[in-house]
Amino acid sequence: MKIAIIGAGAMGCLYGGKLSAIPSNQVFLIDVWEEHISAINKEGLYMEEKGELLNYKMLTATTDPTEVGNADLALIFVKSTLTEQAIKVNKEVFGEDTIALTLQNGMGNIESIAGEIGEKNIIAGTTAHGATMLGPGRVRHAGVGKTIIGELFGVSSRRLKEIESVFSEAGLEIEISNNVMGLIWDKLLVNVGINALTGITKLKNGELLHFPELEELLEEAVKEGVAVAKAKGVILGFSDPVAHTKEVCKATAENRSSMLQDVLNHKHTEIDMINGAIVKEGKFLGVPTPVNQVLCGLIRFFEKGEE
Ligand code: PAF
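A: This is the predicted complex of the input protein with pantoate.
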């Protein structure tokens, strides 16, 4: 399968590296970070995993989507704030039958992709992996988790099965769901509980549970999200999203969340698509979301310092 990874950050590299280990796949990493791209092309992609240093050489990295051309599968891994722009500048990757798979955090990605290429070729899902960028050509796989994918309209399809088999062969645990909106909300609630709190406190995911006062904030933020989801009529996959969020904290204990990495790297965060999405939907539906509002305010305060 010809696979283009749009956005070779930590997660893009993690999936790109693993998928490239299967000889029948041809994997391209596309990113604007030139130093990173040339490091990968020179020495391969280095991935720290469970104390081992793995080197993936069977992939091509580029800043130029015309070098890639139409792919069978395009995995979109840019930050949610950049999705629309990334699809626009990588138009050459999307042919008539290219499947666009988004496993990104936050709300609004499907709409941004659909705005550029239409809905019919989009598959959405979630990932519970955690990864950290260590430097040009170097990432750490910091937490192992499941990938869950589904068609936007809930049907089962041959293309889902194909992706399932390619991912499984690459050692990526994968499941198919017929409730993709529920899935996206399940993951959103995890990010609502973990990302802003780690961004503010600078703690690793697992460390949030070492402090009862932070654990309580995590619980309240997720509960507000659950109330919004219910008011919106979303059918969540987890019966206890607070417990699930804490499980993800434990499974990715050593990871610095993507939002913490953004804060530390002085980058714009995904706050508007995560806790901000809960506040926005809550306002619309008349559901109070004070904890999420405070978390948004604090992260936006950090972002202001970077402007
Ligand atoms: O955004 C992240 O960092 C990840 O989605 C997760 C699962 C919280 C792990 O760090």
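The domain at 2-178 is CATH 3.40.50.720 (Rossmann fold). The pocket of pantoate is lined by residues 105, 128, 130, 143, 190-191, 194-195, 205, 248, 252, 255, 257-258 (CB under 6 Å).
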